[in-house]
Protein: 3-deoxy-8-phosphooctulonate synthase
Amino acid sequence: MEKFSIGGIRIPQDNGLFFIAGPCLIEGRDMAMEVAAELSGFARQTGVPVIFKGSFRKANRSSKESFTGIGDTAALEILAEVRERYGMPVLTDVHNVQDVQLASGYVDVLQIPAFLCRQTELLVAAGESGLAVNIKKGQFMAPEDMSLAAAKVADSGNERIMLTERGTSFGYHNLVVDFRGVPRMARSGYSVVYDATHSLQLPSAGNGVSSGEREFLRPLARAAVAAGVDGIFAEVHPQPSRAHSDAATQIPLGEFAGFARELQQLKTCVQSL
Structure:
């Protein structure tokens, strides 16, 4: 398994999980700082490492009318402030080569969205940035084929790579998680993360927005930990029902600590077997 650091966080951890958590989209400074304060407090109290995530822009929306962001530079400056103020590494999505060039100066991790995981120029540019790269597995991709996506990044000389399972298309407006994909992706030699919230989506099933089934959050996340993931990705929001994106699947901020502690305990049990 390739090991590397993001800030002071070792990927993978020798013992336990790491978390990638934060709002789906940077909607404004106050909300981002509220989430960051809660997550950084949890990390300090428990010793469980957290990478803060937030999209500076949402390029993939169900409807043209959907909110896409507060402005690229404004959102990226908020991410940089989170990193400086709370001492957490930060992650954001990139959608094209220009995004890589723009975002690289503000964040620690570039994330390749699932629908773009085969885009060669984007993967190469992300690798050449020298930053850590998290590649979401496409809903249409076989897990073993993700090693080909990783190779496009690694060919730049950058092997600071994570692969994230986020569900597979199962007919229209539905996803299913095949947990055989966790060990299959791990054979690539890169850390595997489970996206606990996007895996709950019902894509475009909400009359122009993505719906979801948040009630399955814990059982699926537990299954992922039992299957051997190194990290958990989860979107959190102070008031998910009022979120400008992924309102049906984001975790209420106040519930994140309990959710993360439970999974950390389970990971300890799994590692003791």
